Amino acid sequence: MDQSQLQQQQEEAVPAAVPDGVSEPTPAADAPAPVSYNDLFPALPDSGIEAGGPTPGQTNPWAQRMRVGTSSVTQVFHVPTEERKSDSKFGEDSSYTRCGDIMQKTGTNIEVSTGRDGSLTFMISGKQEQVLRAKRHILENFQTQATQSITIPKEHHRFILGRGGQRLRDLETQTATKIQVPGQADPSDKITVAGIKEGIEKAIHELQMISDEQSKQAYEKLEVPKKYHPFICGAHNENITRMQNENPGIRINMPPLSVMKDELTITGEKEGVMRAKQQILAIYEEMQRTCTCVSVEVVKAQHKYLIGPRGNNIAEILQKTGVFVEMPPTDSTSDTITLRGPQDKLGQALTMVYDKANSVVMTEVNAPVWCHKYIIGKKGADIKAITSDIPKVHVEFDTSSSKVKIEGPKEDVEKARERIAARAKELEDSMCVEELDIPTKYHKHIIGKAGANINRIKAEHGVYVSIPENEASTIVKIEGPKEGVLGAKAELLDMKNKMENEKERDIIIESRFHRQIIGTKGENITQIRQQFDQVQIVFPRQGEKSDVVKIRGPKDMVDQSYKHLQKLVKGLMESGYQERVSIYKQHHKFIIGKGGVNIRKIRDETNTRIDLPDESSESSEIVITGRKEDVLAARDRIQKIQNELDNIIQKDINVPSKFHNSIIGPGGRLIQSIMEECGGVQIKFPSADSKSDKSHRQVGGRRRPAPPRHALALELGTDRVTIRGPKDDVEKAEGILTELANEKTLNGHTAEVRAKHEHHRFLIGKNGSKIEALRTGTGTRIVFPSESDKDCEIITIMGKKEDVQRAKEQLEKLIKDLDQTVMAEMSVDPKHHRHFVSRRAEVLREIKAQFGGVDVSFPRSGSDSHTVSLKGAKECVEAAKQRIQEIVDGLRKDGCDRFGSIVRCDRMRDGALEVEFRKSEEAAKALDATRFVFSEGRASGRKLVSLSLTVEPHRSKNSSRGVINCFDLRNESQVTIEVEIPQKHHGTVMGARGMHVQKITQNHQVQIKFPDRADPNALPPAQNGSEEPEAGPRRCDLIRVTGPEAACLAARDALLALVPITIEVEVPFDYHRFIIGQKGKGVRDMMRNFDVNISIPPAEELSNVIRITGTPDKLDDAREGLLQRVKELDAEKADRELRSFTLTMRVNPDYHPKIIGRKGAVISKIRLDHEVNVQFPQKDSEEPDLITITGYEEKAHAAEAAIRQIVGDLESQSREELRIDPRVHARIIGGRGKNIRAIMNEFQVDVRFPRYDDPEPDLVVITGAEDAVFECAERLRNLEEEYMQDVVEREEMNAHVRGPRDTGYNGESTERTDSAEEFPSFGDAANRTPVVWGPRR
């Protein structure tokens, strides 16, 4: 127990510190009255103290007769410096936040103050329960927590918990601790208490009390006033220890001094309990008879010296004099202490109290804060030298002030004070400190690159320069010798003045021009820097996507260089216009021409730079750079070449914009698959910021390309989708998009599910069996991400809402099963362990990658354990176990376990080795030879040596040699065979990155060596000097296989099975491009899926033969897959022909808007109901009344009938034409068409105003029922008459205001009917300026 803890334990021992609600035990009636300090040592008459007056330690009995109850209490407690948490420096934002949170949680008011010694004092006000909870939270946050365990019998735990755990919660609140009781399943009987030490003592006492009450042993509870407890315990608890030693098996539970309880308990054997009880009562009666008390004043600052480390001084006084010293609480300002004990010992105890209190003094020395580190010295060397001969002195440096505190014996303190003061004066005379106010933005330049500038200043002037790390501070400090400080100050001020005259300016230059401005090896930028030699020009780092170039230097020169760079950039922008043109990959060679003649001609004639993608790149975009008009000319010429090569057309179709995102699909995957399915056509959706049907717009003089295919189309009204490509492909894509739009209307729901990428293969199942069953059962489309997607975990489900929800639930259940980690074990013979862990655990890594990241753990090397542990998803673990067992079974077959272990191995005279096996006869018979070659192992560091081994049946009589396991019989029985495969097939046999050979090597445990590449046309070498070459296979065709004979033969068969053969399949030439797919993706997918090579003849050959090359076992599947694709294309062609039935009808253009409907509602319904595409003529069409319907024949006729019905209804309506002055059209229409819509709704008619470019600008057409048309016409005429009066008045007023100056009148009307102010359009009102009307009548 340290000093502060003893103080806290004693704080409530003083009567004045008794908390509310706990009455102090009253002494027995026959106890002598306490003698005060004033009785023993009367004060002088002028002291102002009344003799015999009440002391601070006494309690006024009248104060306890009546107490007014209140629901609010206030509690003050103290957290000493040494017990504060290291991260609880009060005053920081986090501390205030924590206090605020506690007040909010508990509904209390908390006030905090910090003492000079760093201690914290908290005052909490509120209801009793709230105050206790707040105190607990504060102690957890600001006071160091400790942990202590107590053993309580298991059967007593339920009494500690109480009903519903309420008793435990109350105990935690009262003691401000956290009590952990083990659960019923836990056999432990230890209860852990965490909190501050005072709270832990209280809690342990209460727990012990509860346990003792429930104990079956003897239990005694004694009521002894609290003030006599120290005498019963004795110094250092010696009385309690002695009684427990004299009476083994008993336990005396004394409440800590900080717990204001009189009761103490004794448990144990009955006889021992009674003896201990008698001894305690004897001490109590003796002290009650002889004990008296006296109060004295001791300066508060000296109390800690009186207590001593861990309370040793108080214990020493109690041991020597039998007098206990009661100290006031640490948070009290009282200087009064109370001495309690025999009256004849009080004088001796009082002397010891003053000796202990005055044994240590404290003083302070003034020294500037900057001097402190020099007084301390490097690693404390100087302060150690000062205090080396006075070790009892403690020196503390206060960084917040210029004070140095010194504590210790009086003489030693004086010596230390003189030395420190002398050192401080010496430092002040020889050194100084200067502070400079330098803006933060200059600090990095003062420091320099890697601190070069600041280190140079420090070295030259021998000073220390402190630059603040906080950006909010601008003060730079210089410390050191006076001359050095002045020199450094002057240099820093000079740097500051120079930087203040500098200027930094940013210029925006597109990153694509940076390389041109810098030039080859920086030649261009070097010339610019030489021209403006005092300017720094900094470009963004490579890879940093920034267009900002920084210029720094003198103001005038920065401005000059800025203008120079602007001029340079302007020239680059004029010649840097860029256009990207998508050209089919197969046409690139025709654009390049033979020997590049075409592309060079285009470059030279248009003066542009044309960049084509690499052959290995999947991109088909050609980039053209140069002046805008030149770039456009080059683009047209390139597109012309493509159009001539193929029947390329471009067609626009209307697809409602609300379906664009779902048709594009997550990451553009769905639209990409459609383009590939339709032979690689280009499908462009309108951009998100499109305001019209165009998908591109001009930005900054440079044509910005359309966004990616998966860009979002958010604006309403941008329904136009552009399809470009061969005519048949465009028609097919058009049909698919139309079908999708119709389907999305009914099945437009989408959901996403996340699953680890390595688990996808288990969700899909073998050959897609699982996912196909899920798709069929729920009727949804499920799209898995590709490896190139950024987020490889998202699985997309599309379909009807209820189907999507059902599919999502089933998928989530499968994913949950896969995510559940299980542990499993299996048995593997230790002799096979090396196969799995050798070569850096190559086999284990393959198993982990193949089976969803399952972890496989083998025993350590040298262990005899057979247990192998597996951890991962359940299905993955089971699959991995099966694979490991397959490998082990293969090792057993390839090994020579049937031969047994080697018993004897002796070297013969002829140098051979004689080996005896456990089953020698069987081994010799199986090997069928007397000598064979084997290789010694490298595990012991020996070299690889080839030896002859004699194998003969031999029985050893001496069995004491034991078994010598030093050979691997799989190596001892190795053979080498040669397999002849033509060299041109070696690459196919090896597979991608040697995949096939690695698989054969692992499956058959053999070594395979391919020959070096040689000229395939070279002849075999001649032998024995003959001119004729030796007949037989060439060396470059021979593959060597080494291993056990059976394994070599199996590996040979596996290699021969990989030799490819070629077959031919008849496929109509028209289908070749669909099989190839966009950018060759279709044929690549087939080759990858069937692991074959498919060769499609060039287009100019017009051949129907497709060649398939691959291994025999895969050719049949590839042929069937190709023929199946042909069947699909036949079906698509037939369906496309049926769906491409076209029907035309002529409808008065005036009825077109009504057929289309508001925002396309009417025509969209017709399209969806009849599954057709309805196209209206363009504005400038030669046949403005022609409507085209495309779809199945019967559905096209049904759509035609629906349109005819609408037209019939419209023709039955009345139509009237009015002539209304164009000058009042805007007022009749109103803001955003508000007025005219109200009129149309009122009369249920349609009113059409002319456009600004119509030949008859005053013609207004009204359509509707005859009576309604007549009434509406009358309303419009009345409005025209009213508004025209205003127009005339305004014109007359403007004429008078203008005066006689020339108005430019030439006899014609000055009104402009194309003015946006006079005649605003219905839409785009956001861009229209307000119209100022004249005065009203």
Distance between the termini: 100 Å
Choose one word for the global shape.
extended
**Helix/strand class:** alpha+beta
Mean pLDDT: 75
Q: What is the number of helices?
A: 47
Estimate the helix proportion, in percent.
40-55%
Order of the strands making up the biggest sheet: 36-37-39-38
Low-pLDDT ranges: 1-35, 44-69, 690-717, 894-904, 907-913, 916-972, 1022-1028, 1298-1337
Could you tell me the number of beta strands?
51
Largest sheet, in brief, is:
4 strands, mixed
Cα-based radius of gyration, to the nearest Å:
50 Å
Beta-strand residue fraction = 15-25%
Briefly summarize what is shown.
It is built from 47 helices and 51 strands. With 1337 residues, it is an alpha+beta fold.
Your description of this structure?
Helix 3 (93-106) packs antiparallel against helix 4, helix 14 (369-376) packs across helix 16 (410-430) and helix 30 packs antiparallel against helix 31. Strand 14 and strand 15 (403-408) form a beta hairpin. Strands 36-37-39-38 form a 4-stranded mixed sheet. A 3-stranded antiparallel sheet has the order 1-3-2, with helices on one face. With 1337 residues, it is an alpha+beta fold. The radius of gyration is 50 Å and the shape is extended.
